[in-house]
Amino acid sequence: MYKLLITRVTERISPHGVFFIPKQVITMQRSMRLCSFCNFYHGNISKSIKYQQVRIYGTTTVDILSHSPIKKGKKQRTKKYAELLAVTNKTASTKRTEIEKLTASDLPMLVDNPDITTDNSCESKDVTLNQLFDSKYMNENYHDFCDTEIYLNIENNVDIVTENEMKDNLNIGNEIKNNMLQKDSTFHSIKQTKLKDQKLENVLKLSTGNAHKKMEICKTENKYRVKNYVESLLAHIQVYLSCGLLNRANKTLMKCRKYVKNNLECNEIIKLYNILLEAYAFRRQIGKVLELYDMIKNDSLTPTSQTYGYIFDALGNETVDKKQIELLKKLNVEMNNYNISFDDIFSKSYFKISQQKNILKAIRILIPDFEPAYATLNRNYRCKLVEKIQMASSCESPAKGILTIKQLKDLLETQLQTELKIETQIPSIKVCKENINTNLETKIMELENYWKDAALAAFERNLKCLKQKECQSHNALTILYPFLEVLDKEYYIDAILREIRQLAAGSETFSSSLKSLYVALGKYIYRKYEIEIKKQTGVLDKIINIYSKYLEWYLHPEKMPHLNNMNNRTVWEYFEYKETKYGTPLNFTSVNWPMNVIINIGKFLYHIILNDIMLKPDILKEQDLKYSIPAFYTLFRNKGSYLSEQIKPHPLVSKLYRNVHLKTLTFESLLLPSYSPPSPWVSIHLGGYLITKTDFIRTSSDFGCLWHKFENTEPEQLFPIFDSLNQLSSIPWKINTAILDIVIKIFQDGGSVELNVPQSVSVLTPPGPINKNATVEEKQKAAIAIAQYNQKKYDTYSLWCDTLYKLSIANHFRNKIFWLPHNLDFRGRVYPVPPYLNHLSSDLGRSLLLFGKGKPLGPNGLDWLKLHVINLTNFKKAGSVKERLEYANQNMDNILDSATKPLTGKMWWKQSEEPWQTLAGCMEIANALKTPNVEEYVSTFPVHQDGSCNGLQHYAALGKDKIGAESVNLHPFDTPKDVYSEVVSIIETQRQIDAKNNVKIAQILEGYVKRKVIKQTVMTTVYGVTKYGAKHQIAKQLKDMENFPKEHIWSASIYLTESTFHSLRKMFKSAREIQDWFTECAQIISSICCENVEWVTPLGLPIIQPYMKQKSLNNYINDNRKPDKIKQRNAFAPNFIHSLDSTHMMLTGLNCNKNNITFVSVHDCFWTHSCTIDAMNKICREQFVALHSEPILEDLAIFFVKRYLPIYKQLKCKDKPDIETIRRCLTNVPSKGTFDINNVLSSVYFFN
């Protein structure tokens, strides 16, 4: 079988001079089809599959579409076409000459010169095109676009033209149309190729249509796409300069000057000039600096303080003479014209190494006693919800008493080394039953040394060829080789070996597509580049210096009284200000590399893996190998509607590595908790991990609007968001080793379905073989059984791997303190960055975590531990606090038995809804009771307070709906109201009526309408679950009921879904009206205005829904995608509620931090120590009342009018609604009820 798979390679000779294709393989290949395009022997292809081939004449770059899914489709007739060929003006002989194919862009040349012949077409070609486009820049890239015949993403393509040029193109198209049918024209010869007039007319329409389309692109070109283009150029120029290619960087800028002049509204363009100014200033080329400055003025660009900073840096090292003084005076006058002062240069610019000293020296030539005045730190909030919260540091450090400053600095060094290596290997808790041959590691080491030499030779050879080819390229954005020279060769070779290890130790049943592997490898190289840039610019050293001072404040804030009125963010800014006063700022980072560069780097390196990494016979002597064979090969896998090209290791390689790598797991540093306190968020670009770039917002990389929105938001508006993330990230954690030991034992023993510990795939029994004489119905059932088995196998393996990672990481951090950096999703909801070990995990994952710092239980702490355990069991959900406490005391024997004999006793804990957290709570109670004075017992156990259907709580508060508020415990009661039970009661009443009316499904459901059946649907209805999704939710619950008839599951789920939705709309009238208004507004915004729905939370966080229509082939040329109307409409209501519950959480966290209360959250579930539950509950209710005392819906309506009404006014379409109608819709806020929101303050069961 594998001999077939390795036949991807064609007949070639390896770099070592050895044929590596066995004879039997060659014989087999002769019977196959050799593809003339990719030189690959394909097997027989199903007629139902049509390969979508993209012709690429150059190999310098790769396009995203070259790895796009190969869609299935019906066989189509091949279109006939003719090619126009012209003899080139290169040297020719009587036997041989060179020809080239004329492209669509050459047609005007033939039209305007009807007497032209193919003999002189090549000579006049360049002149004609230059006349047409009047731009060498456009000429080069237009031909590049036509000749390569590939689709390019406009963000990464320099083929951007001005509106006037597009008008010229339209005129050209009209000339072609008018002259096309003239008999005396050269096109008479085209008719001889049997191309009909109608086809020519279609070609004309297509050309004209494309021109109109490009013109439309130019009209809709906005600053976001211009900015992306400028950032791509910045990335290339920055890498050129890092490689010492100053001349190429300068040429790149000169070529794009015309484009610059036509896009002056983009403020980012000046950065292209500034980066070159810095390079020339560093080399003390004063003439070039002044020449570039003149270009800035000639191109009508506005210089910035950074621009003048670099100019003064260059002049600062020059000898003082009369000319220099006159020049400085002239610059000073021009600065004043642009409203730039000398102080602005120091407070608003970024500099490296000794630049500021040179600038100061130059300024003091004019003003001898000049001292820069730096901007003071802003310590005030703008938002009135938090303006009463002083930016004061906590009275006590979150890590006080658990670590010394020396231990913290040792942890800093550990974290630094982890991030510098990018990846970390940790021991796996999986029991390795196989006997590992001790010689395997030696054999792999020899093999990798051989591969390293082969990869190095191939890398140097391929890079040399690539460099020679690209040196003639005029398109800056297609140059790749500098990105392969910007680091030492060892980095690229190590990256290749890293990929080899990952591929070899991968899964047998799953492999990633080649494109995703290219991206991952390219991003790995970029992260290495980022680290090297930080080292070279001195940023890394400054981070360590600032962080060391920050750690001293973090552990002992009381020892720094001059920082008393500061929090994590402002303290970091204070130390950064002191450290970077004369040096590189921390936010000086490398520009993100464009995605096409990332892909091309990955492709370049993977070509080496596929073509040059071989298995030689003399290395694997015991194997029956007579020839060198590839260690890796590619294959195509059917993914339903398309074929995916994937890479697999040779079985011999896979066997070697899997036996060795069973002992360890490899994780990127971003996937692990932090060994030291995270860097506080001080901007959207700086925060999280120490030196690894952490995303502030979790959003797709191709949705740049949200990032641009944040960049244009004033920093003061985001201060509360930064401080909330910093408060959550500053909490230290540790592992609950008692629970960890029990779970590891169960996992290593094979898992347990009863205890929710995933089992291995080996426990599954595959369906039996199909009988040859089986009927059609039996075959269908067998096919369904196989599909269900495969799905079950994938699900089981996924859960098993997740648990393996979780337990291995927890075991690695055993007896250690660690931290969890946090960031946001686009709705404002907060998440820990490490995905495996965190408190947003499953019941098992949460049971493994304890607070790093403990606090005494105090007078009520033990009672709260008991209540917490009973709440987790869900046995007394409808009972009062008093009843739950009594129940806990009655079951104290069961609690203590669970703690002392978790696996051998009564196992009362496993009956709980959250069994592992219940067991952890039982153990904490037992430990507390062992101490002489329970109140002095130091507890690290987190106690939870969960909102009662929090989404409906926000709806009821927004509409002041009295009935709805009472249903979700906003109103105080002696016992908690359970909205799920109330919905069940309404459904059951209706079911009984329907049963009496002989509705069959209502009769079947008798005794099965229970709380757990509809709980998930009720909970998620407020978050936008559709009826289709609700049917599946209910069907899943009915399926788990033993006695419910399986044949009626779907019909019963339909009935219950309709009943549930009807009951909720009946109970929550205000919520229904608000949802309807949200939907109507979103419909207007997305369908009529063609805009994304956006809003600003009460805390100041801007939010944009990122739902866009999927890219088609044409979208790779025109990236002007439109919003997905359906998703924008359906998602707005739930996303707005999510943003409100996040705001409530942040307000609670900020106020808890002010009162020295440990606080973390799982969205609407708040955690703290048992001794501070009462204080946190009070703050939680106060902040909910404060939030909903604001005119939230009214403010939203005002925002909609200001944001979208001007856009609507500019729309030019027939029969559009009157603007006042749109205004009324956007401001039609639903009327409110009579509920007094202050009742929440005394509601015990609001959060409980």
Automatic annotation (TrEMBL):
Gene Ontology CC annotations of this record: mitochondrial DNA-directed RNA polymerase complex
SMART domains: RPOL_N
Keywords from the UniProt entry: DNA-directed RNA polymerase, Nucleotidyltransferase, Transcription, Transferase, Transit peptide
Region forming the signal peptide: none
Pfam families documented for this protein: RNA_pol, RPOL_N
GO biological process, any: mitochondrial transcription
InterPro entries noted in UniProt: DNA-dir_Rpol_C_phage-type, DNA-dir_Rpol_phage-type, DNA/RNA_pol_sf, RNA_POL_N_sf, RPOL_N, TPR-like_helical_dom_sf
Reactions this protein catalyses: RNA(n) + a ribonucleoside 5'-triphosphate = RNA(n+1) + diphosphate
Sequence ranges assigned to domain DNA-directed RNA polymerase N-terminal in this UniProt record: 413-730
Single GO molecular function: DNA-directed RNA polymerase activity
Name of the top EC class for this enzyme: transferase
Domain of life per record: Eukaryota
Function as written in the Swiss-Prot or TrEMBL entry: DNA-dependent RNA polymerase catalyzes the transcription of DNA into RNA using the four ribonucleoside triphosphates as substrates.
Name used for this protein in its record: DNA-directed RNA polymerase
Naturally occurring in which organism (per UniProt): Bombus bifarius
Organism phylogeny: Eukaryota, Metazoa, Ecdysozoa, Arthropoda, Hexapoda
